[in-house]
Amino acid sequence: MMKNPYPLYLLVACCVFLIGSNLFGEEVLRENIPYLRNGLPIQTLTVFRPENAETLLPAVVMYHGGSWKKGTPGQLAQLGNYLAERGIVLVSAGYRLVGKQTEDVGDCVKDAIVAYDWVCRNAESIGVDPDRIAVGGASAGGQLGLSVALLSDSAFEEIAGSERQAPLAYLGLNPVVDTNDPRFLKTFEEYGDDFNPVALLEGGAHLPPTFIAHGQKDAVVPLNTVERFAEIATDQGDEVEIMIFEGQSHGFFNPRKGREKMLNELYVAVFGFLSESFDSAGS
């Protein structure tokens, strides 16, 4: 069963950095927004957006990977820069890490929901169009993004303290889609299927338009588990696209020397998917 949510947070500070020039000569802002929830450990929303945008822009709220135990919002910095240069804001949300700031993986899910809810309710303050917000994540963060998208309205509201604004799209980078997999079962055993994406789908939840990028040789989240997840979703009428990267293992999306061509291919596809999703919402 789901545990009682913690109280809502207070915004406490904001730091802004210039992190580079885009193709049009404009700067990209990297803005760190710490938030505090009644004495709980501070987490950070890292916002990548063009400095001189004259209109509100669409955004995707994403969660980093790291087995719910490690990682930082900076994991998604290169993707954030790429999207911001092209007019899409990326919000990389930090969350409490198991074994460091909490012993309960449910706190990771709660933080993810509160972060998404904060962006929806404070969108204009960070240059975001409140009607064009997507969600996503990488590896363990992919499961957090799926929780935002798939949990029941009542479960979401119990945690966030406000009604959910449904995300317009979901973007997954080798996301964990089945917490009953032996690799993850112990982490989630206290919660059963409460936060299990595939079980939520089987229980009648629906995905927004979804794009998943996955390595063909992923041994942490095997490709066949993602294909099964996509099949369940498409059988009930949801739109899911899987982009398979041949010969690639888990974490293939992390910037490394020699991956430039592959990452450019990934980023082009991600930008195209998000742009189409946002354009469809505005039509």
TrEMBL record:
Signal peptide: none
Family under the similarity heading: Belongs to the 'GDXG' lipolytic enzyme family.
Lineage, opening ranks: Bacteria, Pseudomonadati, Verrucomicrobiota, Opitutia, Puniceicoccales
Keyword tags: Hydrolase
Protein name: Alpha/beta hydrolase
GO molecular function ontology, one term from the record: triacylglycerol lipase activity
Start and end residues of each BD-FAE-like domain: 46-188
Residue ranges constituting the Dienelactone hydrolase domain according to the UniProt record: 209-258
Organism whose genome encodes this protein: Puniceicoccus vermicola
Top-level division of the source organism's lineage: Bacteria
PANTHER family: AB HYDROLASE SUPERFAMILY PROTEIN C4A8.06C, ACETYL-HYDROLASE LIPR-RELATED
Pfam family membership, one: BD-FAE
Coiled-coil portions: none
